[in-house]
Write a structure and sequence with these properties.
470 residues; eight-stranded parallel sheet; 13 helices
Length: 470
């Protein structure tokens, strides 16, 4: 029979562990309590997540369709004393014919324009000015010519007040339908243009500032907190800039022909260092072209390196485009070399912002064919069609210099512009490009010509998983 060794002593518990049973029981209680708290925390987190999801605009995923506004009424505004005036009714007629020719018009949803109310016009314009424009409906041709001469590059017709009010109202209709998710995006084929019109005066073929009024309307009517206004008309839209230069809720970007203030409207306020004032400092971005002949590569580089980084940081809830096409090849005023296809790509770039809420309003464009083709290219992108390929080219030295100078002016205000090593568009970028230009007979591959998408994947990434909570 087994016996204990003579020297054996009864087992004794460690003095540091008073009682294993009680200790195990204590640990069990602690574990239960931890689980209970974990469930409570998880439940609380789920409740918070559900509450956040309820406030998300999930209906945006249901928004579809491209709105198109047009009316024959827009052809009634014309110059009585100059039948050859470049801002003519044929501009909108040519666009609509091109949309029909490309079978784009039937794919859009027709939106009926309406006249803007006096209250809506006064969101941007002075009451006395609105009243004066209304009185022009009953004036003689001589009186109209006299009033027109009080402004810079303006003509007024007896129907001008009604047509201009209709141009404003057409854009407001699109704002309503896009902000209520009835439409995803839209284009207003209207005239007269608007981006030069100011608080108390007509200017540059413009009577009422369509885009500026639509911006204020979206803020008042739909409580939009941040609006991005993009102006690619070849002329600087000083009327829009003046309306919002102290307002941080509106980011205004304009790319325009400038030539050191040698091109109309000849304003120092159109230059790159101008960045707004007061609370709006940093929210006015001017990109001045100091040479003619700017190409697709110049415009796309400007969007990629300047506009889009700032726009994604700004996070707009609505994008309004002052869509002038006097910057398209063949326009007698712009003298630029951008193709209609370029504006299809620029439109597509903007569609990645504001959940796709992008509205274009026609501004300038005085070569009928170029304006019509560029407008159709933009509508094609709004409808979701593939962007056309562009010829391979590189941005010009002049364009890179302008972009660099504007980035330098806005470098302190936008962290997304501070990511380039050595500062905004470091000098060696421009120097390398200049060196490339001087290499006669040598061409470098352009990013615009690259058509391949890379995909990196490794099945070993599947080995990372949660072992205790599947």
């Amino acid at each position: 029979m087994d016996t204990k060794p003579s020297g054996a002593r009864p087992a004794r518990r460690s003095p540091r562990l008073p009682n294993s049973n009680s200790n195990a029981q204590g640990r069990s209680e602690e574990l239960k309590e931890a689980k209970r708290k974990g469930k409570m925390d998880r439940s609380k987190g789920e409740d918070e997540l559900v509450a956040q999801l309820k406030h998300l605009e999930v209906s945006r995923s249901l928004a579809s369709g491209t709105g198109l506004v047009h009316s024959e009424e827009f052809t009634r505004h014309n110059c009585l004393w100059d039948p050859s005036h470049p801002e003519c009714p044929d501009r909108v007629t040519a666009i609509m014919e091109e949309l029909e020719r490309r079978d784009l018009r039937p794919r859009c949803l027709a939106v009926e324009p309406r006249e803007a109310t006096e209250q809506e016009l006064r969101l941007v314009h002075k009451k006395d000015y609105v009243d004066l424009m209304r009185k022009t409906q009953t004036m003689s041709e001589k009186e109209l010519q006299t009033i027109s001469e009080n402004y810079d590059s303006v003509y007024i017709h007896p129907d001008s007040f009604r047509v201009a009010s209709l141009a404003v109202g057409s854009l407001l209709e699109l704002v309503d339908k896009v902000m209520t998710s009835e439409l995803r995006n839209g284009f207003s084929v209207s005239r007269p243009p608007g981006h030069h019109a100011q608080f108390d005066q007509a200017n540059g073929y413009c009577l009422f500032n369509n885009v500026a009024i639509a911006t204020r309307y979206a803020q008042r009517q739909h409580r939009v907190k941040r609006v991005l206004v993009v102006d690619w008309d070849v002329h600087h839209g000083q009327g829009i800039q003046y309306a919002f230069e102290e307002d941080p809720s509106v980011l205004y970007f304009s790319v325009h022909r400038y030539e050191k203030a040698g091109f109309w409207p000849h304003l120092e306020a159109s230059d790159g260092p101008v960045a707004g004032s007061g609370a709006g400092l940093g929210y006015t971005i001017n990109l001045p072209w100091n040479k003619t002949g700017m190409t697709d590569a110049d415009y796309i580089t400007a969007f990629q390196h300047l506009l889009l980084p700032v726009a994604y940081q700004f996070q707009p809830q609505l994008v309004l485009v002052a869509a002038g096409f006097d910057c398209v090849r063949g326009d007698p005023k712009g003298e630029m070399e951008a193709t209609p296809q370029c504006f299809s790509i620029l439109t597509r770039m903007l569609m990645g912002l504001a959940e796709g809420r992008v509205l274009l309003a026609l501004e300038g464009g005085y070569n009928l064919r170029s304006t019509a083709e560029a407008s159709a290219a933009c509508v094609s992108s709004l409808l979701g069609d593939p962007c056309p390929p562009l010829s391979s080219s590189s941005p010009s030295l002049s364009a890179l210099t302008s972009i660099s100078e504007t980035i330098s002016a806005h470098y302190p205000y936008w962290s997304r512009l501070q990511v380039l090593e050595g500062g905004p568009l470091a000098d060696d970028v421009v120097i390398r490009h200049k060196a490339n230009e001087e290499q006669v007979g040598e061409t470098s591959p352009s990013p615009l010509g690259v058509m391949t998408t890379g995909l990196a994947y490794d099945e070993r990434m599947m080995e990372h998983l949660n072992l205790w909570d599947r």
